């Protein structure tokens, strides 16, 4: 700052003597560098964003987006801003949100060279896994190994595990239902309630969480957490790596605590997603705030799950077919296997990326089917016609992989709910990116919000807010696919998509064949809270057995 400017600023501050030092003047000077630090980048406009409209504060500071993210409804807020300002909205001094399906092909495409932004650093707990690896070469190496693990051929080998836990899930619901039917009324003592319309009334969200965690616990960690059987959000974790080594070296030393893994993942998504939008230099300070400190500790505990599972697998090899064994066998181009640290990070990544994504999506699909009886009945008819009166009510993938209405109903719910709804931030590569005639130079942060893209009337029609699977048969499929982004796009697209699709088909078809759903309170909005994912808060339904 020039000395002239400093003198002018000083002259504006009242000179109130406080002993030898003029404390007040010094204090009043503090905001000046902060103001300048925000004003200068705005005036300089290195990323060509000054002309992009958006909230006033977002032009100067990341705090606006940090605040919005911490409130849990980022996608709704950004959507309203797009309705107000149009295709381009400035979300932060260097971050533009672009609500245009064509921009997906530009911002996220293969070969354009854009990388994940430092937003993803806030998601690193022990080591970087596939999801939060930002370096291109590191990512390409990991991706090669992991995508082979998720090939359709491999994923088919995981089907028996999925069917096993869907069967456990339905056995538990049958047990609760029978118990409630016998007692005819009153609290079933396990969170459900039997009554009106001879239905069992329960919140299906925790059950979908138990199911998704048990499936992924089995596949990625070698054994389920036992959440379905225990009807509880509780996973056993060794308290430190030392204890893990001891515990698997000599069984008697095992020291385990039980942690609420679902709750921890929810908290982690929220604090990482709101921390990630702040500048990296602020994060160590923000981490000291009680909420973030608690979240950080919880994530370390969660990492203990992966450490323990991988340690166990190294100490007692097995011929079991699961994600962990496939990851263990995977080799990079040089023929190298993953080391223990890298394997642990990948197992943890599969747990984090493959659990609540599936459970929240299953819950949202159930909600939309319960809220739309016509669609539910049409889907149940398709399932009955295709599967007949088979006693085994857990579907096989083969039975349900080509049922058009089932697929359309799942896609329609994924569109409307948008489990991954925020614009995933990418850095414009060397040479920049040009979108609708606006050039964004190298270094500009760009994102395309799936929630808004999924409500684009040009793609989906005028009734975008209606749950209507029929639209998937009425409109041009290529246009729909271009605007449908539940699993993202390009080199960072969901690597577990084959597994996720198989899980959703088996879960939804099996449960819908067995039970009929109604909403407990049809007038109530489907409440959500968003961290990295858009998560339902609950889904209270009345279930009645169909067969
Ligand atoms: C309905 C369920 C799912 C949805 C909606 C979903 C969605 C997504 C999305 C949108 C991304 C891109 C994230 C980003 O770029 O920031 C992603 C990445 C990823 N997903 Fe999924 N996912 C689902 C299930 C799964 C499952 C079952 C697994 C594995 C068990 C998985 C593993 C991953 C991994 C490892 C990545 C990072 C890929 C990379 O960066 O190369 N996901 N997922």
UniProtKB/TrEMBL annotation:
Pathway: Secondary metabolite biosynthesis. Keywords: Heme, Iron, Membrane, Metal-binding, Monooxygenase, Oxidoreductase, Transmembrane, Transmembrane helix. It comes from Rhizopogon vinicolor AM-OR11-026. Heme binds at residue 494. Its cofactor is heme. Pfam families: p450. It comes from the Eukaryota. Belongs to the cytochrome P450 family. CDD domains: CYP67-like. This is Cytochrome P450. SUPFAM superfamilies: Cytochrome P450 (SSF48264). Gene3D superfamilies: Cytochrome P450. The keyword Glycosyltransferase does not apply. One of its GO terms (molecular function) is monooxygenase activity. The chain crosses the membrane at residues 23-43.
